[in-house]
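pasting Protein-export membrane protein SecG for the record, 72 residues
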Amino acid sequence: MSFLGVLQVFISLTLVLLILLQGSGSGLGSPFGGGGSGETFKTRRGFEKIIFYLTVFFIVLFALVLILVIVA
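structre below
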């Protein structure tokens, strides 16, 4: 496996972890309109904000590495 392949696997596993960390506390019914908290929007603060920005960064990084793998 090439360096880009190993890098892509690492980024993928990191993304899975970050996404799972974001979903903690939201409940299972939340993606389907449940949740019951009555809040439509929630301001991210502290650790949640860091996790959110890291997730966005790793998604962009994943896309760039994917394009490099396809081109190479």
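Residues 3-23+42-71 form one domain.
The first helix runs from residue 3 to 22.
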